[in-house]
Amino acid sequence: MASTTAHGLRRANDPPLLILMSLATGPKHGHALAKDIEDFAGVTLGPGALYGAITRLEERGLIEPLGAQDRRRPYRITTSGTAALAAAVADLRRIADVGSARLGFAGGQLA
Asked: Domain of 56: which CATH number?
């Protein structure tokens, strides 16, 4: 999983990974990110985890802020962020495929 750890993306419930997944559908501000992540992943990110991860992603060039809208600051995924997300998803898929094979799943069904 070297390609994802280089970007700090490790677990399926990792806040940076979830933020990148959310931003893959378009720019969002913090509250919209938190709501989307809770909706698609069932993970509730507190403000510290959310904004700490946003800061780290921005420092790594994986996301970038857009112009402020009222008091909200939306972010969008960068080209580097898209590449990091694609690598992380591929790694997660490989791990899930191995787990499924070891459990005897075929096509999502228990064989």
From this structure: 1.10.10.10
